[in-house]
Design a protein that fits this description.
This protein has 360 residues and is an alpha/beta fold. It contains ten helices and eleven strands. The chain has a domain of 69 residues. The strands form two sheets. Strands 1, 2, 3, 6, 7, 8, 9, 10 and 11 form a nine-stranded mixed β-sheet that branches. Strands 4-5 form a two-stranded antiparallel ribbon. Helix 3 runs parallel beside helix 9.
Length: 360
């Protein structure tokens, strides 16, 4: 439901070493590949059923849609951190990942605010989990200047239908770069990569276990502003065109993934299309949210669609979910049952109906 926490009576959701895995988690099939495409700043009703998003709406009808999926907070950055880290860690702004309390650097404008926290987090995250299980991951960022780059904002001369001087890359839409383990990773150049690497990996079938796919600001429905020569379909003022462009980009990405050898294999693969938050500051929430925590009090009702190569079709799942639920789902699908922070909280359950396979 909108605007309030929805409790669920479940078995304990924190799986300790040697403890039984809760039944809903145990029903999750194992997956070889999961692709998560993250879009930006749109409410559920602006996407599912909208004439501006025919591709995403079509995928929702054909495959599966979570009708009660909620973000953690506003603005963008903490939602990305929540998805890959299981918690917002007190972040409640879009300041640069290196910012600290009282930081005077230009990209740390909120650093003097009371309660401000370090934006680099030295804690376990999905990357460290996957690596401990000898699984692989990549964060594919469109318009990333170069592999492994820790730049905060960047232009992209090669971006389609975008002026060369318009900033279209933003590290606040990564999530992974907020973690010290990623910043200090000696293999960072092979894990933080651009869309050229995505195209090559899909064509070869050499894709990681987990792919976090982030289009640039023009292609993810965020927009790059109304100034600096932004085209209408990358402008905040032209919502319908902005959504249409993002929808076309999702269609192209899904088509490329489905053409890859991994999609045609006998092993399970899934594509998740989700959003970071709604676009009007809504506080609708569920599943791990805390109305007393300004960094985790609810980020609105958002669309989340799940496409599987061997799974069910036409699924409409009304279970309340959040990004913590999606993280728990990814963990379960890779056989990981020691959940990150709020992915293991009471009321957070895996998205099992949307990831079930035809054999179940």
């Amino acid at each position: 439901m909108r605007g309030r926490y929805v409790p669920l009576v479940m078995l304990t959701l924190v799986a300790l070493a040697g403890a039984a895995v809760p039944s809903r988690d145990a029903l999750m099939p194992r997956y070889a590949h999961i692709f998560v495409i993250m879009e930006e700043n749109k409410d559920y009703g602006e996407i599912v059923g909208s004439p501006d998003a025919p591709a995403i709406t079509g995928l929702a009808k054909t495959y599966g849609v979570a009708t009660e999926f909620y973000a953690e907070t506003h603005p963008s950055e903490p939602n990305y951190v929540a998805l890959v880290g299981g918690y917002t860690y007190g972040i409640r702004d879009d300041d640069a990942f290196y910012c600290r309390p009282n930081d005077a650097r230009p990209l740390c404008p909120h650093a003097e605010r009371s309660g401000y926290v370090n934006h680099t987090i030295d804690e376990p995250n999905l990357a460290t989990q996957l690596e401990s299980e000898h699984l692989t991951w990549k964060n594919y960022n469109e318009s990333l200047p170069e592999p492994g780059s820790l730049v905060v904002i960047a232009t992209d001369e090669k971006a389609k239908d975008v002026p060369a001087a318009l900033p279209v890359y933003a590290s606040k839409h990564s999530g992974f770069v907020n973690f010290a383990s990623v910043q200090n990773d000696p293999n960072r150049k092979t894990r933080l990569v651009g869309f050229d690497a995505l195209r090559q990996d899909l064509a070869s079938g050499n894709v990681p276990s987990f792919s976090f796919i982030i289009p640039n600001l023009c292609d993810e429905m965020h927009g790059a502003g109304d100034e600096d020569g932004a085209p209408e379909d990358c402008s905040y003022s032209h919502l319908h065109k902005l959504v249409w462009r993002g929808d076309e980009n999702v269609h192209a990405l899904v088509t490329a993934i489905m053409a890859s050898p991994v999609w045609k294999a006998s092993s399970n693969a899934a594509i998740v299309i989700t959003f970071d938050e709604d676009d009007h500051g809504g506080k609708a929430h569920c599943c791990g949210a805390d109305t007393n925590d300004p960094a985790n009090s609810g980020g609105g009702h958002i669309a989340t669609i799940v496409v599987t190569n061997h799974g069910p079709r036409g699924v409409v799942d009304p279970t309340p979910y959040s990004h913590y639920s999606l993280l728990r789902t990814i963990e379960d699908a890779f056989g990981i049952h020691e959940y990150l922070r709020l992915a293991g909280a009471p009321g957070v359950v895996p998205m099992t109906p949307l990831f079930a396979t035809q054999s179940r």
